[in-house]
Amino acid sequence: MNFKKWLVTSLLISGLWLTTTQNTNAEAEASIHNESIYDLYVDRYFNKVIANDYDVNAKDPSAFAGGDFLGIIEKMDHIKEMGFTIISIGPVFATETYDGKRILDFNELEKRFGTPEEFQELIKVVHKNGMKIMVEFPMNNFSENHVWNSDHTKKNWIVQNENGVIQVDLENAEVQKALKETIIDFAKKYDIDGVKFSELDGAPTTFVNDIINGLKEIRDPMYAIALEESEANFDTNYSDSLLVNFRDAFKNTDLPTEGIAQTNENDLLMIDHLLTERFTYYSALENMFPPTRIKTALGAILTMPGVPYMSYGTEIAMNGQSALESHQVMNFRVDEDIMEYLKDINSIRNKSETLRTGKTELLKNENGYLVFKRYSDEETFIVVINNTSATQRIDLSSEIVGENVELRGLFEQDLVRPTDDGNYRLVLDRELVELYQVTELKGLNKSYIAAMAIAYLLFIVFLVIVWKKGKQRRLKEN
């Protein structure tokens, strides 16, 4: 990015907020609708401590790789700078597998991940950085070596299904009591902010709701979500079809977007998760450039109604079809293009309650070209998603945009004023997302011009100083 573009972008993204009265995300009332979620597996993130690397083999994709609680702390700034507000981590209990889901004992933390003190430190640092932490709890499919299976008083808890898979009988009242106590006690002991439920198959809805109600009584906020379709009272709605619709809409250009146009603020919005193929896999099959595809998709997810949810590694276009391929160890030495994009767009979303929970009016939706208005009593945005193979134009009337206003593009630096007929003409290049903030028509923006003038003046002064020092050095040498 050249100097002029950097300057303009910085002024638009940061300076425009001086005229608004919006609360930041951290100041807003605690609600899942104000959050954005970054999901990771502890073992696959960052290995900070060598002392806990028991039977670690980074070359074997099915083995433990060494990631730990202190590793997440080490890379906390990476997550914070991208603007996510919740860090969701996989199960942390003693386990046979790197993803934490073949649980051996709920009463012990996985020693390869770290100690209870280190886990407490992780939670403390997350909160110190103004974020929240969510922990995954599998409700079934534990290891056949789970301590319950070695306790003769709990033998009737374990069942074998028709495929020979060892499972826990989730309709058993004793099992339900034990699981509820485990989850509630864990949430009381550790100051977590939410639970992501998994392996819900066979769990009665009333039982899951009983746990959710118990969690809600511990502290506020205490979020409860699941990446499975369920009738339980989760804070968000997950839909397999919505995920597929987002993936299929953005894996290439000019694809139908009808399936994503009517999201609501309770929907979990994502292009993949850690139990699916990576979005990069599908865009690569289309012979498309994954980073561009990812940025366009995330631009939509972060401006539409709903709760954004992103898997670790998406910011580096991590690829993979099977779990062993897609659960790679995070590589922090990669191009930062997607990360910078997330930083910019999340900074706007986190400052704007309108973008998080405001009303929505769909203005255009045709094969990858999606235009909608996000508005509230305080502010209005026009969002243009051009996921097509050509430059697109739309003319919006003053009835839609407003009278005596102008539109400021926060990314492409466009300033749109009404034409002679009172319409607002928005033109956007292919494969871009633009966010236009509607502001009062002020004619020349004196503060903006002054800021530009000062910046250029300082730059000229810098060049003069460098030139004079160079001249003095040459005189001394002669």
TrEMBL record:
It comes from the Bacteria. Pfam families: Alpha-amylase, Alpha-amylase_C_2. Its cofactor is Ca(2+). The keyword Disulfide bond does not apply. Keywords: Membrane, Metal-binding, Signal, Transmembrane, Transmembrane helix. Residues 1-26 form the signal peptide. The keyword Transmembrane helix applies. The chain crosses the membrane at residues 448-467. GO terms for molecular function: metal ion binding. Residues 39-349 form the Glycosyl hydrolase family 13 catalytic domain. One of its GO terms (biological process) is carbohydrate metabolic process. This is Glycosyl hydrolase family 13 catalytic domain-containing protein. It comes from Psychrobacillus vulpis.
